[in-house]
Amino acid sequence: MRLDKYLKLSRLVKRRTIAKELADKGRIELNGRVAKSASDVTIGDQLILHYGDRQIKVEILATPEIVKKEDASSMYQRLD
After folding, report:
1. Tell me: the pLDDT tens digits for 18-74?
2. Residue 17 gets which letter from DSSP?
């Protein structure tokens, strides 16, 4: 699954275009490397999102194509 789509489905980012902008600015790391919005994410990958002065570190647990709002938080585990 594409990184920008995953971030939107998991509701870590509100819109897919915002996820793309974050990736284009180099503010998303995937397994220790700066990621592009088209990068593929798989189960077990670790993401670090840099939002201004704070960062969110998560591990990917699932990558379903369709997810309900209530189930979005089960797609990842926070590592903070």
Report:
1. 999 999 999 999 999 999 999 999 999 999 999 888 999 999 999 999 999 999 999
2. H
The pLDDT of residue 7 is: 95
Q: How many domains does the chain have?
A: 1
**Cβ distance 48 to 55 under 8 Å?**
yes
Query: What range defines the domain where residue 37 resides?
Result: 3-78
Tokens 């980012």, located at residue: 13
Q: Would you place residue 12 in the very low, low, confident or very high pLDDT band (cuts 50, 70, 90)?
A: very high
CATH of residue 22's domain is: 3.10.290.10
Number of Cβ atoms within 10 Å of the Cβ of 66 = 6
Q: Give the whole-angstrom CA distance, residue 27 versus residue 35.
A: 8
